[in-house]
Design goal:
It contains 5 helices and no strands. By secondary structure, it is mainly α. It has a domain at 68-113. It is elongated, with a radius of gyration of 23 Å. The termini are far apart.
Length: 113
Amino acid sequence: MSSEERSLSVAPKEIFAGVLDGLFAMNHRCHQDGFAFWTSGYESDRQSLCKYINRHQLPMGHPDRFEAPHVGTFRRENLHHADFMRRDIVALLGKRPIPKEIRRAIHELPKES
């Protein structure tokens, strides 16, 4: 055991096991609830986290709604990918005649702002 490990009150293996357990628990909650948040484990953080979770569950457009950072990132990434797909489809089709409903569907893909 190194001097650094002796100075810790908890062994690194125990810390790793705790982090791993937390990741599995978060994965389970995310699957169960559709979202998951991470906190440091301090009581003051837990209280704040509960407020953010309650605000996250408010309907879209509600002035007090809090969008989880990963949700906003995921939405922006999807818009970015849809924009690339739309441009690629248009470039691949070029000047070929395509049915009006397909052309409309292509142009109705979400666009980045």
